[in-house]
Amino acid sequence: MRAPAVRARRITGLSAAPVAVLVAGVMVWQGSTAASRNSGNSWATGQVALTDDDAGRAGVTVENLVPGRTGQKCIVVTPSSTVEGEVRAYVQNLSGSAAAPEDRITLQVEGGTAGSFDDCTGFTPVPGALPAQPLSTLARVNRDYTSGGAAWDTTGTAGESSTYRGTWTFDTAGMTQAQIDALQGSRVIVDLVWDLQGDDAPAA
User: Structure pTM?
Assistant: First the structure.
């Protein structure tokens, strides 16, 4: 009769231990009443702004254009922002004559350093140019920020700027004389846009 009594005591001893742990845990939770406070937390949005040195003037104004003529113009873009971002260049508001000179005027946009509005002296390009394409193509495939090019990463610090150089060419290669003559007296107008958008980041 003694053997069963020993087995019963072992079972009782094992089941008592978890109960003791649970009770101890409740006692610790009930006893924690102190608090620590970190006051005055706040969140403020950053500022994103972009200016250039054109003083309200068009970067390119060419009259009496003839086949094969080419040229370059520069502009300096300066952000006044408090957050990191990215500037991209694109083309909008294309309008022109029925003769469609926009199909024959190519434009390449490069980012770089040195130079100023209407003066590309000392300009040094950096990789990532918007490749030379007809204005009509640029207006179709590089028409907004998402499809823009010649990207420049800004840091949100004072004093940073970038120069952009536009190189244009009136390209009549492969055209007949009659087709070239049909472009006489035509005109094309377009907006070149430099757009800065702040970087998005996951919440911390």
Answer: 0.73
